[in-house]
Every structure is written in structure tokens, then in C-alpha cells.
Design brief:
The protein has about 675 residues and is an alpha+beta fold. It is built from 18 helices and 22 strands. It has helices at about 20-30, 45-55, 70-80, 95-105, 120-150, 170-175, 195-210, 255-280, 300-305, 325-340, 385-400, 405-465, 470-500, 510-520, 525-530, 550-565, 620, 640-650, and strands spanning about 10-15, 35-40, 60, 85-90, 110, 155-160, 165-170, 215-225, 230-240, 245-255, 285-290, 295, 345-350, 355-370, 375-385, 505-510, 530-535, 545, 570-580, 605-610, 655-660, 665-674. The chain has a 5-stranded parallel sheet with strand order 2-1-3-4-5, with helices on both faces. The longest helix has about 60 residues, at about 405-465.
């Protein structure tokens, strides 16, 4: 409640149903003593509450016994309606206990009507208004204090003379891990910290209470019972009572553990940087804008011819080097400081303090404050004398070799060409010999196994026709044996195809037509796997010399493999075209029996078979032409399909390449010369 202005009258609301009492009170306030008050009167509580709601009332004189309100509830209703307005109860009941109860509920005073006179009434009214103002100010201060205590992140505490906590704030309660600040009352630091910190804190507090002097901004190392360590910035002051006597201590503490760790890390980094600077072989120094040394390292001091840093710090380059050299270096420094631009790796000759001519690679960089203002520069110089000597020697050697450069280059080119030819020939011989050995082995195995397989096939057929058994498993077993023999026979035929050097029955043919006929042979496979075929077959391709049946075998195998890679359906795309080879496409086929079959500028016919299937694992891609290697599950392939396919294509002088597509699936490219 704000105090009223000194030049305005205080508005008093009298709620009194007795007209005589109301008239008497008005008379009390009509003389000079009561001139500071302006009185408004109402006989009913309801109209009084309406007037209070309008505001502007400084004091209420309240009779508790009103026609429209029972006596026990009257005061509380007025107080609830205007809690900020002081209330003086005026009653005809001279009951001290009842008066005390009313004051405890919030009334500023309790006056007995028969005992009131002008001076007493005016004094009580002024006292009530002033006490209400003081009480509200105290409550505001108290509320601010509690708000501060509850919300400040720093830890606040109060202690008695025995260093026992009398009050702490929520932040310190959280640090102590107690549910409420009052749980710390009567306890000491020894209940929350290890003895090391608790004893030190108690000693500081006793010193504060004995001397009356505060301890401000002390960094404390707090040790916890579990061995943990934290750091705090603490201030402690003497706590005095109203007479000025020291009755304890109080303080505030801020957790600076993170800052302490940063400080330690910075110190470690500073020490690391200093060790690095001092032990680098390069000359390092820092100067201010006046050219005075602020820092240097051991190598730089050795260059200047001094032993200790004290001999360098605060001095200038002219104190150590010749005037001519010092002037040139100062000029460079001034240019860097003025322009704010560095000098990077500039090679320059220098003469050291011993008079020896040396070469340095120098870098000078301006140092800036956080606001960008240049406050100095750092210089790093490296002695490159030995390198310059080596460069001069190398230059002389290059000049001597220049005369023989043409001969050396020609000899190097011839040597590289011979080396590549030798490697290619060696690889071709190894591959050819390996495949021929595999072929001979396959042919021998095939001939040795084919006849026994034929006998087994006839025996199984005979048993299937003449043996009748009630055991249904007999028929299933004979069927499985027949399928196994067929599969083995298929493998034998594949081995013979791979090993036998059959002569090709070639004639000029249209590759697109051969592919179209091959697609007709795999219609059932395409239908079973629900594969969509897209044909992009170019008409009028240049004719290619082909063995039509062998080439059908090639494409039937490629189409079947593609369909098997798309068991849930997909798209099979066949594309043919003719074009001339570029240099990158005319590369040597290391796996072929004939080297350098394709040349730049030759016209070739190309067929591409691509699918949207599962593709081939990268670690298996290099083995797909190996005999009996297959990525299909057992029973779905012999592992000879691509081996025989590659051999047939090579016999036609062509080439085959299998690769994975980025968008998924695989792509097979077959290429023939026209």
C-alpha cells in the first residue's frame, strides 16, 4: 500500500448500521485533529463491499454486527474483498480474547466504542495505515528475499557461531542432495563434505566471526565423502544481530568446477604450446606494434647469439643485428602491421651475428584482438641454407643432363614399352596355359565319367519299368536318381563343350536376328519368372561372322541367368548397336587367348543384356568365369554356363564384360568385330 500524498485527505469508509455511532465518529473526525480524513458511511456490508470494489479507500472502520452479515464472517468478507486496505474493528463488545483473535486474522486494531475519543481514534487510524504500509513493504521484501533464495543458482547459507547451518537456499540443498533446505538445519559441513574441506571451511568461518572481516572471492577445493572433487568461488561475511553483535556467519558460493577445468586445460595447452614453441627448430618470436619482443624461442635466441629470454624481451631487433638488416626487417614488420596482411614463406638472404650468410624462409602474420585490432605480429623463420645449396647443386646437375635429355627420354619410353609388352605376353601365356590345363583335365574327366553315367541311366530306366513295389518311396528314389544322372550328364556335356576345340561353322549373320531367335527358346523361363522383356534391337546392323547355333547357346545362357536373378519378376532389356571404338574401349583383354584384338577406330557390333535383379556381389564378380563357380543355389546351375559362354565368344574373336548396374541388377556386354 503506497502512502498517500501529503496534500490529499485520507479516505475512510465507515461500515456501521447504528446511526448514532456513525454520527459520533463523524464528529470525532470533524475537528482539526481529524481534518486529514474524509469519511464515507454505509450501514450495510453489501454497499460497503461495492464501494471497496471501486477503489480509492485508505482505511475501513468496521462494525462486526451488521444487518446483512453474521458477526463471525463480517471481518473476513471485508478483508477478502480488499486485503490491501487496513481495517480497524469498532465493536461494543469489550472482549480482549476476541479482540486478539480479530487482530491475528488481519485487523490492524480493535476499538471498543464506549472507550473511543477523538485523539485515540485518529491515532489508531494513522497507526493502522502506517503499520499496513510497513507490513506490506516488509512482505514485499520478504517475498523478494524468498524468491532470490529459491531461484538464485549460487549457493547461499547462514550459520550460527558453531558453524551449524541455520538456513540454506535450494541451490545448496540440491548440492547437498537433501529434499528440502530445512533438512540441513543444525548440521555442519562435516555432514556433507570430507574432513579436508569441512575443517578448512570451519576455520575460515571462525576467523570471520573473530575478526569481523569478510573473506571475499576465495577459490575452495571441495572434497566429497565419495572422493569426488569440485571447486567453488566463496565469500563469507559476519552475521550480526540488531545490536551489531556477531551471532554467526553467512556466505554465497558459486560452482566453478567447469571454469577450473577450463583453466587447467588452458594451462596445459599453454604449457604444451610453450614446449612446442621452445623446441621447434624454426626461429619463432612475437613483437608488439613498437617492434619490442614479447616472446621468442630457443632457436631464435641462438640466432641472436643470447642465452636467456630476459636478454630479449622488451628489446628490438636493432639491439642484436646490423643497422642495415635491422632496418629492412623493421620495414617488413611495419608493412604487415599497417596493411594487416601476412608475408608467407618469403625466401630471403640474411647474415647472422657470426657474419655467416644464411637463407631463411620467413612468415610474418599480424596478431589481432577479438575486435580485429592489430596489436602485434608473430614471425616464424626457417633456415633453408642446406636446401638452397642442394637446389643449386641439383640445378647444375639438371643443366648437365639437359644435353642428354632426348636420348634419356627415348630410352625410357622404349624400356617402358618393352616392359609392358613383356608383362602382357607373360600374363597371356599364364592364362592360356591355365585354361588349356583345365580343358585337358575336364575332357579326361568327362570321357571317364560319361560311360558309367550311361550305364547308370539305363539301369535306373530298367528298374523304373520292371520293378513294382508297394513302397511309394521306391518310385520317388528312382525319380531322384534319374534327375541326378541328368544333371551329371549336363555337367559332362558342359565340360566337353569347354574342353573340345570344335571348329566354328561361321557365316555372315545379323546379330539382332540371332538374339530374337534365342529369346524364342527361353519363352517358358520368361513366363515362369514373370519377367518383362524390352527389345531395343537395331535393324540393319553390319553382318558379323557367327556360328549361329553356338551364338544361340551364348544368349540362351545369358537370358536364363538374367531370369533366374529376378525370381519375383523384373525387366530384361536387350539392346544392340554398332559404332566405332574409342581409345578407352580398345583396351587389351587380359583374360583372352588373343591379345590386342580390338583397335581404335574399328567398327564393332555390341549387344547389351541388362536385368533388374539382385546383381552379383563385388567379391564374387572376379570369379564368375571360373569353372564350377556359381552364385545360384544348389541344383539351379552347374557353374559352367559363363565359362563356356566366354570361350565361345573368344573363339569368335569377341569380348564379354559383366558389371553391376548402379540402379540395381547386372549388365552383360558382348562385342564383336565386323
Amino acid at each position: 500500500m503506497n502512502p498517500p500524498a501529503s496534500n490529499s485527505r485520507l479516505k475512510v469508509l465507515l461500515i456501521e448500521d447504528n446511526a448514532g455511532d456513525a454520527r459520533l465518529i463523524r464528529e470525532y473526525l470533524s475537528d482539526e485533529t481529524g481534518a486529514a480524513f474524509s469519511l464515507e458511511h454505509t450501514p450495510l456490508l453489501a454497499t460497503g463491499l461495492e464501494r471497496l470494489a471501486q477503489g480509492g479507500i485508505d482505511l475501513v472502520l468496521l462494525d462486526l454486527s451488521l444487518p446483512d452479515s453474521p458477526m463471525p464472517a463480517t471481518f473476513q468478507r471485508v478483508h477478502d474483498a480488499a486485503p490491501q486496505v487496513p481495517i480497524i474493528v469498532m465493536s461494543g463488545l469489550d472482549d480482549e480474547q476476541f479482540a486478539m483473535q480479530t487482530v491475528q486474522e488481519g485487523a490492524q486494531d480493535y476499538l471498543v466504542k464506549g472507550q473511543v475519543e477523538t485523539r485515540l481514534l485518529v491515532h489508531a487510524m494513522r497507526y493502522a495505515i502506517e503499520r499496513k504500509r510497513v507490513t506490506e513493504a516488509f512482505e514485499r521484501e520478504r517475498e523478494l528475499f524468498h524468491t532470490l533464495m529459491d531461484n538464485i543458482p549460487d549457493r547461499v547459507f547462514f550459520k550460527d557461531r558453531a558453524s551449524r547451518f541455520t538456513r540454506i537456499n535450494r541451490a545448496l540443498a540440491g548440492h547437498f542432495r537433501v529434499g528440502h533446505p530445512r533438512e540441513a538445519a543444525g548440521r555442519s559441513d562435516a555432514d556433507f563434505f570430507a574432513a579436508e574441506h569441512a575443517d578448512s571451511a570451519r576455520h575460515d568461518e571462525q576467523r570471520v566471526m573473530e575478526s569481523g572481516e569478510p573473506i571475499l572471492g576465495k577459490i575452495e577445493r571441495e572434497t566429497l565423502p565419495d572422493g569426488g572433487v569440485s571447486w567453488a568461488l566463496t565469500s563469507k561475511l559476519p552475521l550480526r544481530d540488531q545490536r551489531g553483535q556477531i551471532v554467526g556467519s553467512f556466505g554465497i558460493s558459486r560452482d566453478v568446477t567447469a571454469l577450473k577445468k577450463i583453466e587447467e586445460e588452458l594451462a596445459n595447452e599453454r604449457n604444451l604450446l610453450r614446449s612446442l614453441v621452445d623446441n621447434l627448430p624454426d626461429y619463432i618470436h612475437v613483437k608488439d606494434t613498437d617492434g619490442r619482443y614479447l616472446l621468442d624461442n630457443i632457436a631464435h635466441r641462438r640466432f641472436l647469439g643470447v642465452l636467456s629470454e630476459r636478454e630479449v624481451i622488451g628489446r628490438r631487433v636493432g639491439d642484436f643485428l646490423s643497422p642495415e638488416l635491422a632496418a629492412r626487417l623493421d620495414e617488413d614488420d611495419a608493412r604487415v602491421l599497417a596493411a594487416g596482411q601476412p608475408i608467407l614463406n618469403r625466401e630471403e638472404p640474411l647474415v647472422d651475428v657470426r657474419g655467416q650468410r644464411r637463407w631463411h624462409s620467413t612468415t610474418k602474420v599480424p596478431l589481432r584482438t577479438g575486435e580485429g585490432r592489430v596489436f602485434g605480429l608473430v614471425c616464424i623463420a626457417r633456415d633453408i641454407t642446406e636446401r638452397k645449396i642442394s637446389e643449386e647443386a641439383l640445378q647444375r646437375a639438371n643443366e648437365e643432363l639437359a644435353a642428354h635429355k632426348g636420348e634419356l627420354q627415348k630410352a625410357l619410353v622404349d624400356l617402358q614399352r618393352s616392359h609392358e609388352d613383356l608383362k602382357a605376353a607373360q600374363f597371356q601365356l599364364i592364362q592360356a596355359e591355365k585354361m588349356q590345363s583345365v580343358g585337358r583335365l575336364a575332357a579326361g574327366v568327362a570321357h571317364e565319367v560319361k560311360n558309367p553315367l550311361g550305364i547308370l541311366r539305363m539301369g535306373v530306366d530298367y528298374l523304373a519299368q520292371h520293378v513294382h513295389s508297394t513302397d511309394e518311396n521306391v518310385g520317388l528314389i528312382l525319380s531322384d536318381m534319374t534327375e541326378a544322372i541328368k544333371r551329371a550328364d549336363g555337367i559332362i556335356l558342359g565340360l566337353l563343350d569347354f574342353s573340345a576345340p570344335h571348329a566354328l561353322d561361321t557365316q555372315a549373320d545379323d546379330l539382332s536376328a540371332v538374339i530374337d531367335q534365342s529369346l524364342a527358346l527361353v519363352r517358358h523361363v520368361i513366363k515362369e519368372t514373370n519377367v518383362t522383356v524390352i527389345k531395343e534391337l537395331t535393324a540393319g546392323l553390319p553382318p558379323v561372322w557367327l556360328d549361329r547355333n553356338k551364338m544361340k547357346q551364348v544368349f540362351v545362357n545369358l537370358f536364363t541367368n538374367a531370369c533366374h536373378a529376378m525370381p519375383q519378376g523384373g525387366t530384361l532389356t536387350i539392346h544392340t548397336r554398332a559404332r566405332q571404338l574409342s581409345s578407352s574401349e580398345a583396351a587389351h583383354d587380359a583374360g583372352a587367348r588373343h591379345a590386342d584384338r580390338f583397335h581404335v577406330g574399328e567398327t564393332v557390333v555390341i549387344a547389351e543384356v541388362s536385368d533388374t535383379g539382385t546383381g552379383i556381389a563385388d567379391d564374387k564378380l572376379s570369379h564368375i568365369y571360373d569353372p564350377f563357380f556359381t552364385t545360384k543355389e544348389t541344383g539351379k546351375g552347374t557353374g559352367l554356363g559363363l565359362t563356356v559362354t566366354k570361350k565361345i565368344i573368344e573363339l569368335h574373336g569377341g569380348a564379354i564384360e559383366v558389371r553391376n548396374r548402379k540402379e540395381g541388377g547386372a549388365c552383360v556386354t558382348v562385342m564383336f568385330k565386323v
